[in-house]
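Because showing beats explaining, we think one record worth quoting, sequence and backbone structure tokens together, and here it is:
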Amino acid sequence: MDCKKFFLEKGRLPLDDHFEGIRASYEDDLTPMVEIARRFNVSRQAIHKVLRKHGVDTSKRKFPVKCHWCEKEFNKTKGKIRSQKYHFCSVECYYNYIHEIGMNYKPNRHGQRIGRQKVAEYFDLKPGMVVHHEDGNNMNNEIENLKVFANNGDHIRYHRWVNKVEPIWDGGSIE
């Protein structure tokens, strides 16, 4: 039985015949190996072997990206590039961007404590839950301005506009 017939009977395609598409998905589109493997009905290791065989660097190296605010070039891993819509080289650039788009974030721990107390009157807050001030002003503790996220990861994803996360409680819906 020839090799191509064997692969076709198993529902698999010879990967070397599709190397350019695999390489483009991996390097240009930053598609994870596991997703490419699903497309070809093979294991992630099979995709890894084909990429290595053809000299593609599969290490977890960093790739150059431009800061969304200052356009300075810096390096990030593929995972970070895929998971974030905007990239910032520093915390200062992130806050400059936030202020530019009209979110006047004013960190204030006392305001955060008051916000938690306000929310606790309407919702059973558990440890680890995060109270979010929609207008970014921690001193504005009007109930309509407050939202609750299950954890800090959900809160950060909400801020970064990636995989938009819905809050588990929204003070804006209280009447």
